[in-house]
Amino acid sequence: MRRLITALFLTVLLTAAGVSRALSASQPAYVLQAEQNYRHARAELNAAQKALAQLKQEEARLGRQAMRLRGQWLEPAKLWRATQAAQKRLVFAQQNSQQSLTELNIARDAARRQRVGPVSTPERSPQWWW
């Protein structure tokens, strides 16, 4: 029974992988490239968010420690510069991610038009009320 379930699971898994490969093979290369660029931009965005979060945690830890020891918190210049650089990287990654999403949508739209044909615009109704 266990072997049957395992074989069934592997069959479903391999079939799903084959379907995704077949779908990706049916798309033009520029759509695949745009999807890859978008995935890469999202990964960069996630990495920038995690780096900034780690720096903020470090800042909070050092602040608590300084308040406990000295009663005041003066942020070290090195930490401040690192935080500023991380914020700049995050803004750049957000812009890059948004731009790659726009390019992906444009590529998908072009591929859709190539498959289906141009979208006809509806005729404007006569403006008899003017």
Describe this structure in words.
The chain is mainly alpha-helical and 130 residues long. The chain contains 3 helices and no strands. The protein has helices spanning 2-26, 29-69, 77-116. Helix 2 packs antiparallel against helix 3 (77-116). The protein is flat. The chain starts with a helix and ends in a 14-residue tail after the last helix. The mean pLDDT is 84.
Give the H and E element order: HHH
Task: Give the CA-CA distance, first to last residue.
Answer: 76 Å
**Which band does the percent of strand residues land in?**
under 5%
Poorly predicted ranges: none
Based on secondary structure, the structural category is mainly alpha
Rough outline: flat
The overall pLDDT average reads 84
List the helices and strands and how they pair.
Elements: H1 2-26, H2 29-69, H3 77-116
Helix pairs in contact: 2-3
